[in-house]
Protein: Glycosyltransferase family 92 protein
Amino acid sequence: FSGQDESAFNHAGTMTGRLLLQKIVETRAPPVATTEASSPNATTEFNPHELEPSIDKSPSLSEKDLAAQIQGLIPNLPVEYWQKYKGKVLSKNKTCAKFPSLYDISFNNMYWQTLQTSNGTFHLYGAYYDNRTLVAMKPVIRVLGMINRLEPRVKTFCQLWFDGYKEPVFAKVWEYKYIWYKKWGNYKNGLFQPYLIACQVPPGYRHLVPESVSLVERPCDMATTNLRVINNRPPNGKKEDFAVCVKGLDFLHDDLSVRLVEWLEMLFLLGAHKVFLYDLEVHPNISKVLNYYEEQGRVEVTKLTLPGEQPNIPGLIHMYLKSKVTNKRQNELIPYNDCLYKNMYRYKYIALLDTDEVIMPKSSMTWKSLMETVVPKALKTKKDPRASYNVRNVYFMDTMRHTHGWFREIPHYMHMLQHVYRSRNYTKPGQYVKCFHDPGRVLTLHNHFPLSCLGGGCSSYAIDTEDAHLQHYRADCVTTLKKSCSTEYKNHTILDTTIWRYREPLVGRVTDTLVRLGFFTPGTASRPNDPPASAVRRK
Structure:
C-alpha cells in the first residue's frame, strides 16, 4: 500500500478474518504534516475496503518488444533475424538443413548452446565475422566454445544463414584452435576445453556477412544451435584508442563497490574509452556501480554462466572456482576471447585487466602518450610491429600501507591513493605481465599474453619499467610465489607516489560518483584516532 510501512499491518497476521474486515487502527505518526498542536501519537485509520494495492500495471509487451528485451539479455541469439523470417520456411529442402527457430535451440545455462556429436559435446558461446587484414583465408566465421575432447576429430559443418536467402550456405569446419597449453593441466578427454572453431565463407558469398551460424555434424542435420554472427564496427568508421576487458566477476559477498569506482575512474583518466566486464555473481552494490556506468556508456556488462554441469548456484560458483583453479583458468578464456572478437574492429589496443590492476605510465600521463613513446622504441629494436606490448608486475600490498599508516590528506576510501608503498622488486620478466594487445594481430588471448597470433608467431615487446609498469594491489602474493613472498617482496618496500599525479581529479570523480549513488549516509565522518601519516615527500 503506497505510503505505508510494512509494520503498519504486521499485527494483522494474528487477526481473524472478521477483524481484518473491520477498521484497522494503528497508533503511529500520521503520514502527512500536522500542526504543532497535533499529538505526536495521532491515530490514523485505514479501511481495507478503500485501499488499493500498488502493483505493476504496465501494459503487456508486444512480441516485438519482448524479442528486443531477449536480444539485450542474450546477445548471442539471432533474435531480430528470427523475428524477420518467423513463419517462413528457410531450409535447403523439406528434409535438409531447416533454419532452427529459437524454440529448437538446445540451451545450456542460459548463455550457451549445445551440439551433441558422435564424438564429443560442444557448448558454444559466441560467433564472430573475421576479415582482418592478416587473416589468410578470410572472411572466416569463428565460433567460441568448449568441447569435451582433446584434438577433436569429429567432422563438423557451419550452416551459414544470410539475410535475403531462403537456404543456408554450407562451410566445412577447417580448424579447432585450442586456447590452452597442455602443460597447464586438465589435459584429458571428458573435461571441457576452450576452443576457437573456424569455417571459411565460401566463394560467391564473401561480400556478405551471415546473420547467424549453426554448427552441425552433417550438413543436412536439423541444427540445435543458432548463434548471431557478431560484426561490431565503429559507428563513424574510426577506431577508439583503448578498451579494457575483465573476466567474469565473482564477488557475491565481497562488497568491492567503492574500490571498483576508484579503479574505473583511474582507467578513464588514463585513457580507457570503455571497460567490458562479465558478471558471474556480484554483490548488489557492485551491480549498482556497474549499472550507473553502463547508463553513462562507459561500461558494458555481459552476464555469464559456467557451461555444462559446472555449478551455477550463487555462492557455490565461488567455492567451485576457488577449489578448481585450473577449471577456473580455462573458463576465463571464454570472456577474454569473446571481448577480443566483439571489439577487434573498434579499438587500437585491448588490455585484459583484473579489478586490482592498473597499467601505470611513469614517463607520461596517459596510455596514448605512453604508446606514442613505446612503439617507436619497439620498432628500433625490430622493424616488424608487435602483437602485444607487456608491462612488468609489481605488488602494492595491503600490509605495506598498515606499516606506514594513513595519509590524512587523502580520503580513506581511496584505496589506491592510500597504498603507495610497493615492493622494490618486480616479478620476473614475462611472469604475471599484462599487455596492450593489437587486435589486428592476435588470434587467441590468455590472461597474461597472446596464445596465438595472425601472420606467424606472437611477438611481444617488453615495456621498460621506466616508462610503465603494472601496479597490482593485493593482500598477498599469488599462490605460486607464497614461499618467496616475504623475502623477495614484502620485506623490501619503497615509496612510489606516481599515482598521486592524478590525485585531485581522481578524488573528485570518485567522491562525486559515491555521492550520486548514495554511498555516504548522513552523519558519517572520518574514522577516529587515525595513526599519523608518514612523513613523505611527493615525487
